[in-house]
Design a protein that fits this description.
By secondary structure, this protein is mainly alpha-helical. About 75% of the residues lie in helices and about 0% in strands. The protein contains 14 helices and no strands.
Length: about 300
């Protein structure tokens, strides 16, 4: 006996509802797994050192105190200075990266650019083979003279092959007829780029901008290699150096009577909150574009 259309529809609806329910449960479980560690860090940063040592970590602060944050910000102007350096390289690097990446991706997506495949191969080749850290160091220091210069934290990371191909593939999803109609109306290449392509590529721009901003915000490795001036330390590198030399730095400044009285464990948790807090505030504004930009740019072309 063949099933009636009504029974098929009901069966399909049940399966869809079951799949949706299981998917939501799995996603909710993964979200909880991701959120719980952050809540433990947040609660621990507001707990006393003794409570952490005796009771361990919890989702709510034990013996609420701000001692960890007071100890960090009592380092003088070091934290605000490191924040300003990180904010500067994040804004400048993200802006420069978006400009160069979008221009490169747009050119490589143009069907009338006959050398686009050759240039795409040269860009892709850099993802397979790299000169390494020593040649990069020699170029940045001996040729470009960027040692102990804030621009060494920005320029080497401006161009990224993955971001270029991501933007190129997204632009390929834009109907070429729009570009041709703009050209018929008298628009030049650059006007088509910023009047037609860029407004339609907001998801890709937001996705690449998020990648670049996170990369610059978390910058510490190049700071470790090239920067010796403490006024140019990024936030991440300064916090890492501070925690590695906590006892010596605090004793030199006379901020504590005894090294043993330092809230070292809660300070580690507080540094994590200080470093990640601005990113958590920034992410929701670009999250709605993130999935669309990554999906379309990653599967086409």
């Amino acid at each position: 006996m063949r099933p009636t259309p009504t029974s098929v529809h009901i069966r399909h609806g049940f399966r869809a509802a079951l799949f949706k329910g299981i998917s939501m449960f799995v996603i909710a479980a993964l979200a909880v797994i991701c959120v719980i560690p952050f809540l433990l860090i947040l609660a621990g940063s507001f707990s006393s050192e003794s409570a952490i040592a005796v009771n361990g970590y919890s989702l709510l602060p034990r013996e609420f105190t701000l001692d960890a944050y007071k100890a960090i910000f009592n380092m003088g102007n070091s934290i605000p200075q490191a924040y300003m350096v990180t904010i500067f390289i994040t804004i400048m690097g993200t802006a420069a990266g978006l400009l160069t990446t979008s221009m490169s991706g747009y050119v490589l997506s143009r069907p009338d650019f006959k050398h686009r495949n050759k240039f795409a191969f040269f860009i892709y080749f850099t993802t397979l083979f790299s000169a390494g850290m020593i040649p990069s160091y020699l170029v940045n220091v001996n040729i470009l003279h960027l040692n102990n210069n804030i621009w060494v934290l920005i320029l080497p990371a401006v161009m990224n092959p993955f971001n270029i191909f991501l933007f190129r593939n997204f632009v390929k999803s834009i109907p070429h007829e729009l570009v041709e109609s703009a050209r018929i109306d008298g628009a030049g290449d650059f006007k088509i780029y910023y009047k037609v392509v860029m407004p339609l590529a907001k998801p890709a721009v937001a996705t690449i901008g998020l990648f670049l901003a996170l990369s610059y915000w978390n910058e510490w490795f190049r700071c470790n290699l090239y920067i010796k001036n403490t006024d140019l330390y990024t936030l991440q590198y300064f916090l890492q150096s501070m925690m590695a030399n906590l006892s010596a730095m605090m004793s030199e400044k006379g901020l504590v009577d005894s090294v043993a009285s330092l809230p070292s464990e809660t300070m580690k948790l507080a540094t994590a909150i200080i470093a990640t807090g601005p990113v958590l505030l920034f992410y929701p504004f670009v999250q709605r574009y993130f999935v669309g930009g990554l999906t379309v740019g990653g599967v086409k072309g």
